[in-house]
Write a structure and sequence with these properties.
The chain is α+β, with helices and mostly antiparallel strands. It is built from 19 helices and 9 strands.
C-alpha cells in the first residue's frame, strides 16, 4: 500500500503528540498541523486553567503578519463563568460544539469587537473561522482552538469545508487524549510524591534524633546534582544527570530510611549506653538489692561489717553509673569495675537469683563507640533490608525503576565492606554513590544525633576523603560534595 506524503505527515504529527512529554511542544504541533491541513492563515490556542476558571491564551500564529513565526496578539484570557453565549471561545467550550463561520463580521450571535480591534490594529481582515473545543467524548474540555481565513491554492480566503472540521476534530481529539494521559501521569506522580513525603514525615517523626535527616539528605543530593549539571554546562565536568535520574535520586533519598518504620523505637532513640529505660531499670534493681541486703542485716542474716562493705560498694557503683552510661570512652579500670559488678549476684530468701548486672547490661556498659551493642547495631542495620522489602511491594513505573536499588544500597561500600549484601565497585551506580556520600555527610554534621557530637563541615569532608582513600567511597563524588558544600557555592 502506497502512503501519500500527507498521510506520512499526519502519522508524524500523531506520533509526536502521542510521545511528546512537553506540553508546549504538543500545543505548537497541533496548532501548526491544524493550520497546515486546513490551509488557515491564522490560529489561536486557549487552554483551560481549572484553578483560575479561565481559558488562558497560549499561542497565536498568523502567517501573513508574522511570516510563519509566533507572535503575541493582544488576546485576553477569558472567564469560563462569563460570556457563555456571546463569546465564541467560551461558547465552544461550554456547548462542546465546533463552530464553522463563513464571515465573522456577519455573525450576530457573538461579540466580535476584539477581533475587529485586532484587525484594525494590524490592517488585517478576519473572515472565515473554525472554532473547536479540545476534548474527548465523556471527558472535560481541555481548551479551544480557533482557525481563521482558510485559503485556496491561489491564496484567496474561503470558508472551512466539512473535511476541515473532521481534520480539526481528529487532531484535537489526539491532543486531548495525550494531554489527558499526561495529566493522569502527572497526577499519579504528584500522588506518589505526596505519599512519599507522608512516609518521610512518619519516619522522621519516629525519633527526635532523625527529625530532619531524610529531608537534609534529599536536599544535599539535589544540591550535588545541580552542581554537577551546572559544571557540565560550563564544560568543567563530563558527567550529566538527566531530569529523570534527578527525580529518581530525589525519591530514593526520601525513601532510603523507610525501613526504620520497623526498627524498634527504643534502639533508634537510644542516646546512652543503657538508654533511658535501661538506666532506670538497672538503678531500680540495684536499689532493690540494697534494700534487701539491709533487711537481711536487720533480720540477722547478714553481719554488719559485710552489709556495710557491700552497701558501700553498691552506693559507689550507683554514684558512678551515670558517668559510665554517657562517657565518650571508658578506661580499662571502668571496664574492670563493670565486670566485677557483673560477677556479683544476690539470692533472696525464696531462692530468686538477681544478678547485679545481667548479660545485656554488661554488654551495654562495654560499648566503646556509639550507644548500641553489636546485637542492637545489627538490628538497626536491618533497616536497609526492610527498606528493600517495603519498596519491592510498591509498583514503581519505569520512570522510577532505579529508586528501590538506590535506596536499598545506600549503606554499601565500594570495597565490599558495607551492608547488607557487601556489594562492591560496579554493582553500585553513580546515583547510589551520591546518596551514600550525602547520607554519611549529614550523619556527621547533624546536631541531633544521640550517640555523638556534631562534626563541623570541614572535618566531615576530611572523614569522607579518608573513606575515599580507603576505597569505600567514590573519590569523584566526595570531591564534588566537598566543592558543592563550600560556603557560597551554588
Amino acid at each position: 500500500m502506497q502512503i501519500t506524503d500527507l498521510e506520512k505527515d499526519f502519522l508524524r504529527v500523531g506520533y509526536t503528540v502521542a510521545t511528546e512529554a512537553n506540553f508546549l511542544v504538543i500545543f505548537d504541533t497541533i496548532l501548526d498541523a491544524c493550520m497546515r491541513y486546513t490551509r488557515a492563515d491564522g490560529g489561536t490556542l486557549y487552554m483551560v486553567d481549572d484553578e483560575e476558571g479561565r481559558l488562558v491564551h497560549l499561542l497565536d500564529l498568523n502567517r501573513t503578519l508574522d511570516a510563519d513565526e509566533k507572535h503575541s496578539a493582544d488576546q485576553a484570557d477569558m472567564e469560563l463563568a462569563e460570556d457563555r453565549d456571546t463569546n465564541i471561545f467560551t461558547y465552544a467550550y461550554h456547548k462542546r460544539e465546533v463552530l464553522n463561520i463563513e464571515d465573522i463580521y456577519a455573525e450576530e450571535r457573538f461579540d466580535t469587537r476584539f477581533i475587529r480591534e485586532f484587525d484594525k490594529k494590524n490592517e488585517y481582515r478576519t473572515r472565515s473561522m473554525l472554532v473547536s473545543p479540545i476534548h474527548v467524548v465523556g471527558k472535560p474540555v481541555l481548551g479551544v482552538v480557533s482557525l481563521y481565513n482558510s485559503t485556496d491554492h491561489d491564496g484567496n480566503v474561503i470558508s472551512f469545508d466539512k473535511d476541515c472540521e473532521n481534520i480539526v476534530r481528529s487532531l484535537t481529539s489526539q491532543m486531548a487524549n495525550s494531554l489527558t494521559n499526561m495529566i493522569l501521569i502527572q497526577d499519579m506522580d504528584e500522588q506518589l510524591g505526596s505519599f512519599v513525603k507522608s512516609l518521610t514525615t512518619a519516619i522522621d517523626a519516629k525519633t527526635p534524633y532523625n527529625a530532619n535527616h531524610t529531608r537534609h539528605v534529599e536536599q544535599y543530593c539535589m544540591q550535588v546534582v545541580d552542581f554537577i549539571n551546572d559544571n557540565h554546562t560550563r564544560g568543567n565536568l563530563d558527567i550529566y544527570i538527566t531530569d529523570n535520574d534527578r527525580e529518581q535520586l530525589s525519591m530514593a533519598a526520601l525513601l532510603h530510611d523507610i525501613g526504620k518504620i520497623i526498627t524498634p523505637r527504643e534502639m533508634m532513640n537510644k542516646s546512652t549506653r543503657l538508654g533511658v529505660t535501661g538506666l532506670e531499670r538497672l538503678w531500680d534493681k540495684l536499689e532493690r538489692i540494697r534494700l534487701l541486703k539491709r533487711i537481711d542485716f536487720l533480720e540477722g542474716r547478714l553481719e554488719e561489717s559485710v552489709w556495710a562493705a557491700e552497701d558501700k560498694e553498691l552506693m559507689s557503683f550507683l554514684e558512678d553509673l551515670d558517668r559510665l552510661n554517657v562517657e565518650d570512652s571508658l578506661s580499662p579500670e571502668d571496664l574492670a569495675w563493670v565486670d566485677a559488678m557483673s560477677a556479683r549476684e544476690y539470692r533472696t530468701t525464696e531462692g530468686e537469683v538477681i544478678p547485679y548486672l545481667d548479660y545485656q547490661e554488661q554488654k551495654s556498659l562495654h560499648i566503646m563507640k556509639g550507644t548500641l551493642t553489636e546485637e542492637e547495631r545489627e538490628v538497626v542495620e536491618q533497616h536497609v533490608v526492610y527498606t528493600d522489602r517495603l519498596l519491592a511491594d510498591i509498583r514503581f513505573t519505569d520512570k522510577y525503576n532505579k529508586v528501590r536499588s538506590i535506596a536499598a544500597n545506600h549503606h554499601e561500600m565500594l570495597d565490599g565492606s558495607g551492608y547488607p549484601r557487601g556489594l562492591r565497585g560496579d554493582q553500585l551506580d553513580f546515583l547510589t554513590r551520591i546518596l551514600t556520600v550525602c547520607d554519611i555527610y549529614d550523619s556527621l554534621t547533624a546536631d541531633d544525633r544521640p550517640y555523638k557530637a556534631r562534626i563541623d563541615e570541614e572535618s566531615a569532608i576530611g572523614i569522607l576523603k579518608g573513606m575515599a582513600m580507603d576505597g569505600k567511597l567514590d573519590p569523584q563524588v566526595v570531591n564534588i560534595v566537598a566543592e558543592c558544600m563550600q560556603p557560597g557555592t551554588k
